[in-house]
Amino acid sequence: MVKEETDRSIPPAAQAPAARASSRDRKRWLIPALAAGLVVSLALAATFVALWITNVDTSAEDVGEFMNDQRPVAERRSIEVINLLMNYDSTNIDDVADRMLEISTGNFRQDYEETFSAGLGEAIEKVSASSRGQILNGPEISFRSGSEALAIARVTQTTQNDENPAGNTFDYVIEITLIDT
Question: Is the overall model pTM greater than 0.85, yes or no?
Fold first, then answer.
């Protein structure tokens, strides 16, 4: 059995109006709280319905068509990048570097810029270095996402300078990540 304790300093008749006032305060806040909850619920329901109505099913054919439309763009850009990396000489290295910085992004751009800031252009000019290359196969384009493509090409490159006018030729595979910004 639980015994209810009351404050003996307050007469019992005075305790009842205080309890009624507390009950009225709670009822006064109950209606606005319920109304606010209803408004939030309706807003969430309306958002859900709007998203559900506008939901468009994307088929594999739609995705494939989009990627095929993007393939020539990625191929052209990867060919340009490969040609800039492989074809330069002491007379055009500044133009090549400027163009590469225009079209590159991210860590590659930062590293490329730092390399030229450290004096690569001047070193190429000093020894009259040149490079000529061509794409042997590719580039083969694959997509990692709608905004990222991977280009792989097999290339040959011949580098020359004042000390080695006959040059050295290298064949290798180059991989380029293209990001649509």
Answer: no
